[in-house]
Structure prediction request, 153 residues.
Amino acid sequence: MNPSDTPIAIGSDHAGVELKALLRRTLEEAGHAVEDCGTHGPESVDYPDYGDRVAAAVLEGRARFGVVVCGTGIGISIAANRHKGIRCALVSETTSARLTRQHNDANVLALGARMIGPEIALDCLRTFLATPYEGGRHERRVAKLSPDRAPAA
Ligand code: RB5
Prediction:
């Protein structure tokens, strides 16, 4: 999973807190630095707050990627995608995890803890982190997702 000193930011609501803990353990065991943006317990919280925190960590350059988890993955991915410059992809299988890196240069992965099992979630995470952006023909399209982002020459 290409360990690096620049952290992966992770965040979840209460529905995703157990999966987030597993993702954190797995990332750390693989040598990644992790910024855990919470939540840290089972008490009910609001998923937008954690999508916002992970988005900020990525946009401020503290994290190279973000991972967000809620029950479906939908609410927290919507929250993350409200931030200009965030390209958050909700995935439930590894082909989408690979293609969203190759084609969309996704910088945040969203997972639904109540939708997929832990092994699929881990496979999606590993695939997402291991896959580079292809650039090329995708660059113009990705630039249109963030109008301030200069297309590659
Ligand atoms: C929380 O009950 C649930 O609504 C949340 O985790 C998420 O699924 C929202 O999209």
Notes: The two ends are 29 Å apart (CA to CA).
